[in-house]
Amino acid sequence: MKRYTVAILGVLSLFLLSACSSNGASEDTQIVSLQQIEVVEIEHGSTSLHVETADVEALEVLLLSHNKPAKAVVDQADNQVKIHLDNDITRMLNIGRMPQLKVRIPQDYAGKVQIEGSSGNVTGTGLQSQSLQLKGRSGNISLAFTSIDHDVDVTVKSGNVNLKLGEETPNAEWLLQSGSGRRSVSLPLEDRSESNRKTEGRSGDGTYKVKIKTGSGNITIQ
After folding, report:
1. Which residue in 23, 32, 50, 61 has the fewest CB atoms around it within 10 Å?
2. Under 8 Å between Cβ of 80 and 41
3. Residues 37 and 135 in one domain
């Protein structure tokens, strides 16, 4: 019994130390060349993620954290770069002070970007040129596209999905599916069809496929 009590007290002490830690934040930055890279894979877990297409020469991975040590792990093998977070227990126990992950992708990168998470929100700005696949269990998704130049596939079990378009008539074929939640599309769609759980249609010449699916949550295209 004493042994269990000591273990519990140890965990509580670790929690209190984490909760009372300094407000200072640290930033871990890594830069990776995307030459010969075909796939960028990001696993962000429950950490909030911001993805940005930017005028940079190489992939930039930034982790803003209120705990030390905490860093993003970037692995490169063959034609793939994989980004994920370490498993520091003090970071996991620091409620309300989770790190924030930011990934900046070069504008001229034309490969695939694959994102997977559990409960973290995902935002994206200036997106273009890359084929995007995003999967999550829960968490809201908000993506702003300068243009849609490749396929987009977003699937979440629970959470809202919001797409902001930088062009009036993207060349896309749309498939929007929601188990429970509304679907709102502000741009006119040709050959539009509606059902209780699905909206389909085409804008422009329909070159690229945009698929959005959420189990429970709203889908907004604007």
Report:
1. 23
2. yes
3. yes
**Residue range of the domain that includes 88:** 1-139
The identity of residue 56, as a single letter, is V
DSSP readout, 117-152? ESS--EEEEEE-SSEEEEEEEES-EEEEES---S-E
- Dihedral angle of Cα 184, 188, 192, 196, to the nearest 10 degrees: 10
**Per-residue pLDDT, 129:** 84
Torsion sign across C-alpha atoms 74, 106, 62, 122? negative
pTM to 2 decimal places: 0.84
Write the CB contacts of 118 (distance below 8 Å, at least 6 apart in sequence). Answer: 45, 46, 136, 137, 138, 139
Report angle CA 114, 80, 44 to the nearest 5 degrees. Answer: 40
Low-confidence ranges of the chain (pLDDT < 50): 4-22, 89-91, 93
Burial-class residue 136 by CB neighbours within 10 Å (0-12, 13-18, 19+): buried
Residue finishing a domain among 119, 139, 159? 139
User: What was the pLDDT predicted at 108?
Assistant: 94
> Could you tell me the CA-to-CA distances from 2 to 11, 13, 16 in Å, in that order?
14, 16, 21
| Cα 133 to Cα 156: distance, rounded to the nearest angstrom | 11
